Input
Amino acid sequence: MPAISRADTSLLGRWWWSVDRVTLLALGVLIGIGYVLALAAMPAFSGRISDPHTMAMIKQIIFLGLGGALMVVLSMCTLRQVKLAALGSGIVFFLLTGFTLLHGTEVDGAHRWISLPGFTIQPSEFLRPAFIIVTGWLIAESRRTPGFPGKRAALGLFLITALMLKMQPDIGMTALFTLVVFAQFYLDGLEIKWVAVAAAVIAVAAIGAFVFISHVHTRVELFLHPTNTNAYQALTALSAFGNGGMFGLGPGEGQVKHFLPDARADFVFAVAGEEFGLFFCAFIILVFAAIVIRAMMRLLAEPNLFVLLAAGGLIAGFGLQAFVNMASSLSLIPTKGMTLPFISYGGSSVLAISMQMGFLLALTRKRHQGDLT
Output
């Protein structure tokens, strides 16, 4: 492929010289790791196209390819296009998230999915990046336009969304939305007294969830007092890291994927630890850390408040999601069904996080004069 000249003023040329290529490369590495673990996390399969494991592997590889393409396309957007895309997709997936409360597919007592021919979709996954951008836009507009109630609108939107997520129920996603919105208000210059109030409310909500929501109570109790019978998944995942040691047992040699039903999704990090070892897991952590730190460094000198709030929220959500998945696999926190971005199995997860990081790449581009709005 011929090199792209700095004098190239085409859409591709302007994108290539303005996008953060370091972050783009790191995200490409994560997609590559996702491809490797799509193979490693599947139990042994016959190789026939009709085999369920074969089909699952093929679907995941297709979703990774589609996700990479979606991320690149969205990263070419101007700020105005990012806002419009987030607003349009946000309305659609907000309505679909509400639809799940009435007609969603029930899995383990939760109504988070909509069944379509051949696959299911979790609308709240796609709502997240759009929600983050819209709330950032509203908060920033309240400073730009005197009298505009942007902060109250952002808070109202959050409360309605959190209520819907709580009703599904999806406590983990509710907590993630809450922390991201808190981070955005903090970046906007939230007074310390309100920081203390917000922290107290979050703490009270966490205690309330432990006391009044049975499955939250159970997971915390299992985390505090694990046994082989009542904390089987967490202990089995933890033992996988010990089995893998420094260098792993080798591709396909791990056993945890045969015993854990969520091995390819919630506990895919344990599969990586067992088959590829400590150094590979450390490399995965470093890639995630590099993406988060790189984005934060670029935002330090960002003069546009909307970009600061939207991109800050997107990278906070990305980092928190990765932390929760890996920490729960290591039994550092109670287990939570949250996917590892680009690596866990699931079409909704891959496409939604691709959408989120595509928006991030678009927001953190070096902008030309025509791209400032």
